[in-house]
Amino acid sequence: MPLFEGLGSGGEKTAVVVDLGAAYTKCGFAGETGPRFIIPSEIKRAGSPEAVRVVQYNINTEELYSILKEFVHLLYFRHLLVNPRDRRVVIVESVLCPSHFRETLSRVFFKHFEVPSVLFAPSHLMSVMTLGIQSALVMDCGYTETLIYEGVPILSAWEALPMGGKAIHRLLWLMYCLVFNSLLVFVTDSIPEDVVEDIKVRTCFVSDLQRGMKIQEARFNLDGSAERPAPPPDVEYPLDGQKILHVKGAIRDSVAEMLFEQDNEEKSIATLLLDTLVKCPIDTRKVLSENLVIIGGTSMLPGFLHRLLSEIRSLVEKPKYRDALATKSFRIHSPPAKPNCTAWLGGAIFGALQDILGSRSVSRDYYSETGRIPDWCCLSTPLPDSVYEAGKMPPPLMKRAFSTEK
Amino acid sequence: MATLLQPEKVLYLVRGEKKIRVPLSQLYFCRYCSELRSLECVSHEVDSHFCPSCLENMPSAEAKLKKNRCANCFDCPCCMHTLSTRATNIPAPLPDDPTKTTMKKAYYLACGFCRWTSRDVGMADKSVASGGWQEPENPHTQRINKLIEYYQQLAQREKLERDRKKLARRRPFMPQAFSEKYGLGTRLQRQRSGAPISALYGLSLKEGEDQKEITIEPAQALDEVEPLPEDYYTRPVNLPEVTTLRQRLLQPDFQPAGASQLHPRHKHLLMKRSLRCRKCEHNLSKPEFNPTSIKFKIQLVATKSKFGVNINTAPKATTHSFPRQTLFTLSGLTITVLQCVLVPSKELVLSGKDAAAEYDELAEPQGFQDDPDVVAFRKSNKIGFFIKVVPQREEGDVTVAFKLRHDFRNLAAPIRPTEEGEATSEAIWLTHHVELSLGPLAT
């Protein structure tokens, strides 16, 4: 029986854990309590003044390869300061990541940096690992999309909505253009995105349910009969040391409403959760609704969680969900990390399990033999043994129950 | 010389994973493989760590312990500048006699750029100049460590199961009853790597284990979340008090929203890099240990190998179909024959085609009958020769590409011990593909 050795006291070196997000990348080492660095997912090239985003799904493979190579180079040699060849890699990623991105990334790691092995871990699963429970309903409100996922053991229902921080930025930017036009203020250059992000982080917030409802009514009401609640005070935001941007109070609280507005399909972030619950098998619904986990940077807006809970509770009363869902109790977990690092923390906890990290990763030999990494949506990879024996559960239904509707 | 300030004029083709064209100043020459290497086809390694402000070298073991952060230097949490320690005199009561006061030195951290001080955050002044400042600890550390222990136990069990299965499989003569007892059945596949992570949760703590079991309380979900305080909607925002996203992300464990909770962090280290050829695993570049030294222990850069082509004078504005003479300077170790391969896409009138002029770099420049049309001048180991270039198109940039073939005596390579014990190295022929850009055509 191998004795339990402490981390780092001999044996393998700690693995590198990377969470490549659309807006920010969290990187660090396994077994630690937080990422070492949270850096924006972009690289600066000599040619263009603007930074190039790393996580892009629409560019061709060569370009993506060189961007990813440069980015991972920065990660290793400026932030982590370790040799790539010595340590295994755990990549925490979204399940909806396209295969071609994942393959390019693994090619960068294996061919260029020659890491010993790579493990792709779904971010939602990893967040559940930080809690010590068996299953949960995880919602990731990130930059490009909001994605819902169920924890182990069965991954069957997922929902996504392309609404996240990026949409908020765009809305804020548009609102600014409108404001400027109406006030006839001459703006020589448009506001760069990081300024918009800063404005969002520092001044915007999510109002509670009643106030939010009133704001939405006031916005969509054409005859002007609905009263808009009194806006919060304006903020003067200095730009460049010379100009001052007046952030109107009305903008501050209405921007986040966009996440909770129901669009033509009656979808908002809150309905995402309820729709997922409806999709799940009946016996799991109660367990899942009482174990909600919200991760992602956008969920760190002040007032977000409270508003989300109240929205869910009010939506459950609506006829659409009242009959479908018998459960009425919703509970939220608070993981031992900030919501934007929770998935990373799960990856770090998993990466610290040196006994099985090796067997579950894709090793460099396997990659050089087969030339590709196993993907959950690819049927040519046979299922592992352990699924059939260790648990007494049926094999994951993900290959058959993969829902094509969003 | 055209290439000192404009290195992109003379490019060498390097055949690595893909072909890239790089100036000679950015290339390395592996003398064991006798090939040019660019930064893309070498493997980079971390050599040594050092602090950028106090320039102190840190051994890697210590760097790992300190999480790649310097022990003495701090970063301002507001503007990321290096903090300096300042001292003031404060009156403090003497330990023996509380009534009398004496001046004692108290130290605090201050930023010279944005005027932030450690007193803004509420950090008390310390009585020692260095070593007194502590970073705050993450409150969730305990819980996370417990989680890790618990999962490690589960992982151990899984490993045991796997090992047991492997051992069982190696005995094919196992009686049927035995295999049934273990429940292996006929579906014996090797565990595939890269499997989706699922079964870890299925391993509940099995009974019969007499080891100490680590249990963990599952996290409790909350029914209610704290709402925003009432005055949030009416309170004016003091923008300097609210941290920017960048300031928050510098402290991933805490990410404070208020500037009064921004604690300084130790300065992150930088590293020196060493390069290694991927094929023969020899070092191409190894810096010195001392952070203040810019020298290298091993430096196999291509410019040191003393071969290269430079454009000496390129006449401006060649028009189409007019052969013009361009003067090139060629410097190398030992050039015996210069052979120019006509690049088929461009019509070059290379008059140096048969210039089989033999010259040795160490010999005196005498006795060489240089064709004045071909060779312009000769100086120690440099030679200038003419190439006539006929541009093919009417406009655009003129690029000349040719293969440069020369022999190379590897004087510094490790000598394989021959029977005679003589240290002669043989000349090997190297071919480089060179591209020269002569500038735009003037109309």
From TrEMBL, chain A:
It holds the Pfam family Actin. Keywords: ATP-binding, Cytoplasm, Cytoskeleton, Hydrolase, Nucleotide-binding. Transmembrane segments: none annotated. GO terms for molecular function: ATP binding; hydrolase activity. It is found in: Cytoplasm, Cytoskeleton. GO terms for cellular component: cytoskeleton. Belongs to the actin family. This is Actin related protein 10. It comes from Cyprinus carpio (Common carp).
From TrEMBL, chain B:
It comes from the Eukaryota. The keyword Cytoplasm applies. Keywords: Acetylation, Coiled coil, Cytoplasm, Cytoskeleton, Isopeptide bond, Phosphoprotein, Ubl conjugation. Pfam families: Dynactin_p62 (PF05502). Subunit of dynactin, a multiprotein complex part of a tripartite complex with dynein and a adapter, such as BICDL1, BICD2 or HOOK3. The dynactin complex is built around ACTR1A/ACTB filament and consists of an actin-related filament composed of a shoulder domain, a pointed end and a barbed end. Its length is defined by its flexible shoulder domain. The soulder is composed of 2 DCTN1 subunits, 4 DCTN2 and 2 DCTN3. The 4 DCNT2 (via N-terminus) bind the ACTR1A filament and act as molecular rulers to determine the length. The pointed end is important for binding dynein-dynactin cargo adapters. This is Dynactin subunit 4. InterPro entries: DCTN4 (IPR008603). Belongs to the dynactin subunit 4 family. The lineage of its organism: Eukaryota, Metazoa, Chordata, Craniata, Vertebrata. GO terms for cellular component: cell cortex; centrosome; dynactin complex; myofibril; stress fiber. The gene is LOC109066270. It comes from Cyprinus carpio (Common carp). It is found in: Cytoplasm, Cell cortex; Cytoplasm, Cytoskeleton, Microtubule organizing center, Centrosome; Cytoplasm, Cytoskeleton, Stress fiber; Cytoplasm, Myofibril. The keyword Coiled coil applies.
